[in-house]
Amino acid sequence: MLVDTRLGKLFVEEHGEGEPLLLWHSLLCEGGMWRFQVPALAERYRVINLDAPGHGRSAPIRRPFTLEECAEAAREVMDALDVDRAHWAGLSWGGMTGMRFALRHPDRLRSLALLDTSAHRESRRKLPSYHVMAFIARRFGAIAPLLDRLQPLFLTEETRRTRPDVLREFRDHIARMDPASIGHAVDAVIFHREDIRHRLGEITAPTLVMVGSEDVATPPARAREIAAGIPGATLIEVPGAAHLSALDRPDAVTEALTAFFDDVRSSERTGRDA
Q1: Between β-strands 46-50 and 8-15, what pairing exists: parallel, antiparallel or unpaired?
Q2: Environment class of 168 (CB within 10 Å of its CB; exposed 0-12, middle 13-18, buried 19+)
Q3: Which residues pair with 22 in a beta bridge?
Q4: Residue 62 burial (CB < 10 Å; 0-12/13-18/19+)?
C-alpha cells in the first residue's frame, strides 16, 4: 500500500501479526533488503516494512529533506496504520532515522535496533569521494563505474564472489533509481547529517546496536560509541559482514534481532505482571 507522508507517498508492506515492528532500510536499498529477516520476524510480530522516500516503490522525492523529517514520516506511517507503539529496526539510514525518532517520540517506541549506522556527521576524510559519486549519480545516473565503486562499500568480497544473486539485485535496484531522488537522499543521509552524539543519553528505549566487523561505511568504532552513549544498550559485532550486514550475514542478523525483540517483549510482560 501507499501511505501519504510529508515526504510523499511511501510504499508499505505488512507481514504477520502481533506487536508492530517497523523496518527502515539503508540508503540505495529498499524494503527487500530485509528479505532474509522478514519471514522469521513475521512469525512473532506485525512487520511494517517500508520503502524510504524516493526508494523502491515509494514515490520519487522532488525536494531536499532531513533525517528529522524522515522520523516524522515514519510517525505518519504509524498513524495511518493505527500503530501506537512499535519496535524499530533500522540499518544505516534506518538507524539514523530511528535514533531521531527515539528522541522525538519516545512514547511511540518499544525498542530500537540500530544496525551499521552512525550518530556522527559524515567523516571529512570520506566526503570528497562521496561528492564525486553523488555528482556522477546526479549527472549520469547509476552507471556501471559508479556501481563498481559502491558495491565494496556495501557488501563483503566474499558475498560479491559467492552470492551473485545478492550483488545483481543490489546493482539492478540502484540502476533503476531516479537520479533526483538519489541526490536528495544522499544529501540528507551523508552531506547534511547532524552530529547527535551529545543526545544519545536521552534515548530511553531498550536498544541493540549491531555492526558488521568489515563495515567501512560506518565502522565498528561508530557502533561502539553509540552503544556507550545509550543507557543499557547492547552491542553485537557481526563477523564477516560489511555495511549491509542483513544481506552479508542474514542468519546471524535474524537470530540477533529475534532474540532482542523477544527479550524486550518478555521483559515488558514480566513488568506488567509484577
Answers
A1: antiparallel
A2: exposed
A3: 48, 88
A4: exposed
The reported pTM is 0.93
Query: 97 with 77: CB under 8 angstroms?
Result: no
pLDDT value at 133 more than 70: no
Task: Say if CB 26 and CB 51 are below 8 A apart.
Answer: no
In Å, what is the CA distance from 223 to each residue of 120, 151, 152, 227, 249? 10, 21, 20, 6, 17
The per-residue pLDDT for 6 is 97
Cα–Cα distance between 260 and 184 in angstroms, integer? 33
Q: Identify the helix (H) or strand (E) that includes residue 144.
A: helix 144-154
pLDDT above 70 (res 15): yes
In a 10 Å sphere around its CB, with 0-12 CB exposed, 13-18 middle and 19+ buried, how is residue 230 labelled?
Answer: buried
CB of 91 within 8 A of CB of 33? yes
Mean predicted confidence (pLDDT) in 212-237: 96
Asked if residue 135 has pLDDT above 70, the reply is no
127-140 and 179-186 are packed helices; what angle lies between their axes, rounded to 10 degrees?
160
**112-151 exposure pattern, b = at least 16 Cβ within 10 A, e = fewer:** bbbbbbbbbebeeeeeeebeebbebbeeeebeeebbeebb
Query: In the numeric block, which cell numbers belong to residue 30?
Result: 529498499
Contact at 8 Å (CB) between 237 and 220? yes
